[in-house]
Design goal:
Layout (H helix, E strand, L loop, with lengths): L2 E8 L5 H8 L4 H10 L4 E8 L3 E8 L2 H16 L3 H5 L3 E4 H12 L11 H15 L5 H20 L9 H13 L6 E5 L3 H10 L6 E5 L3 H10 L3 E3 L4 H7 L2 E4 L10 H11 L4 E5 L16 E5 L11 H52 L9 H28 L6 H11 L11
Parallel strand pairs: 5-6, 5-8, 6-7, 8-9, 9-10
Antiparallel strand pairs: 1-3, 1-4, 2-3
Length: 428
């Protein structure tokens, strides 16, 4: 019987330097699915890649062989050795894998518990799997169940109400650094969703000016207009660093946008004013060596963990409710999985009953010739009803025993009693 397996690493098991090696190339998810599809023991698969996690879920005939193959694929995509990656990888099977996916989709496993972005990212991963036809009967149902669990957690608990995004955490960090943000100038590098969220939070704290730099100037102009700021081109970043107090970087660049040399070159013009970088991009936008420069401070996405520690107590009670919902849904899904083992026998039993019915009616066609069409139809309906009633008790019994350790024995006995593995001669 196929098993559900999961291999992954997240913000708790791997540092940003390791996570970014797999997240740097947006096409890695597609490459991972293509590679997993070639593994003979993997029947279905999904690959989730975000700034804080890399997850592979698969339905496999041979869990151990498949797990080794998936780890090898991750190593190849990230350009890291097995030794470098394996210590940061966790693995789950069956119920534990199901539970882990439900917790991920519900944002219970996120750095910022309750943040809404992860559900959208999981949906995108599923859409890619559907597009590449790597998701089948089991993962299709599992993913839709995960979306249902996320909705229940969001509507039945207060976890999302006290949630903070990475962008919000970045602003909270800026407030801790400066105590008050009034009169400060902020340079946003990148004009995507995370930058927009950061700008939204910053604009409520009295920032004097927001400067937006983006590769696409029109996008920077749009975001700057929304928040009453001004747009600059990427070529003007160095000039903007001279006047900024806080730099929030969140681009999708595969390599640092802010280099050590660039920042060092503008320090004299700043006249010793402190400069804070909050790098919420993965891979990192800011060269970590910049932290060694005088009056310059760099915080990356891992540093944001401390910003949300104060929320842990608040969310604890709501998380308990959410975990209960997750467990309920895990048990429901496992019961459905168990029914898969009994489905082939039930289908074969119904097919045999239908075949016998058809065969006996053909044999009796001469005797039934004197009947009208409506009489023959009534006779056929009655015979089919008798067949259904005769096999109903065995079907109900098999469904009730699927969770017992003896279920396999009952299935074998049913197939022997009804000769479900015989041939057409058994109809005579």
């Amino acid at each position: 019987m196929s098993r559900i397996i999961n291999l992954g690493m997240n913000h708790e098991t791997a540092p940003v330097s390791l996570r970014e090696c797999l997240a740097s190339d947006p096409s890695n998810s597609g490459k991972a699915l293509d590679a997993m599809k070639e593994v003979s023991s993997i029947k279905e698969c999904i690959f989730i890649s975000t700034c804080n996690r890399v997850e592979a879920f698969a339905v496999a005939d041979d869990p151990r062989y498949s797990a080794v193959a998936i780890l090898k694929i991750m190593c190849e995509l990230g350009g890291r050795s097995n030794e470098e990656l394996s210590s940061s990888i966790y693995s789950n099977e069956d119920g534990d894998a199901i539970r882990h996916l439900f917790r991920v989709a519900s944002s219970l496993d996120s750095m910022m518990v309750g943040e809404p972005q992860i559900l959208g990212q999981v949906k995108q991963a599923y859409a890619l799997a559907v597009e590449k036809k790597t998701s089948g009967v089991i993962l299709n149902r599992l993913m839709h169940r995960a979306f249902r669990v996320a909705k229940r957690v969001r509507t039945e608990t207060g976890v999302s109400e006290s949630a903070v995004s990475v962008s919000y955490a970045a602003v909270e960090l800026a407030r801790k650094i400066f105590h008050v943000l009034e009169g400060k100038k902020v340079l946003l590098i990148g004009a995507g969703e995370m930058a927009e969220l950061a700008a939204r939070h910053l604009s409520t704290h009295g920032i004097s000016e927001i400067i937006v730099a983006n590769r696409t100037l029109s996008r920077a102009m749009h975001l700057a207009e929304v928040f009453g700021g001004r747009a600059v081109s990427f070529n003007e970043i160095e000039t903007s660093l001279v006047e900024a107090d806080i730099v929030v970087a969140s681009t999708g660049s595969p390599e640092p946008i802010i280099t050590y040399e660039t920042v060092k070159g503008c320090l004299r013009k700043r006249r010793s004013r402190p400069l804070f970088f909050i790098d919420i991009a993965v891979p990192r936008d800011v060269d970590p060596r910049i932290n060694k420069l005088q009056n310059v401070y760099v915080y990356d996405i891992d540093d944001l963990k401390g910003v949300v520690e104060h929320n842990i107590t608040q969310r604890k009670q709501e998380s308990i409710k959410a975990e209960r919902i997750v467990q309920e849904e895990v048990e429901k899904f496992q019961k459905w999985l168990e029914t898969l083992s009994v489905v082939p026998t039930i289908v074969d039993l119904r097919k045999k009953a239908e075949a016998i019915l058809e065969h006996e009616f053909k044999k009796s066609s001469g005797a039934l010739a004197s009947m009208s069409d409506s009489q023959r139809e009534a006779m056929f309906v009655m015979a089919r009803s008798i067949c259904d009633k005769l096999i109903n008790d065995p079907v109900v019994f098999l469904k009730r025993t699927i969770s017992r350790s003896s279920s396999t024995g009952y299935l074998d006995l049913t197939r022997k009693l009804f000769k479900l593995d015989g041939d057409e001669d058994d109809l005579h």
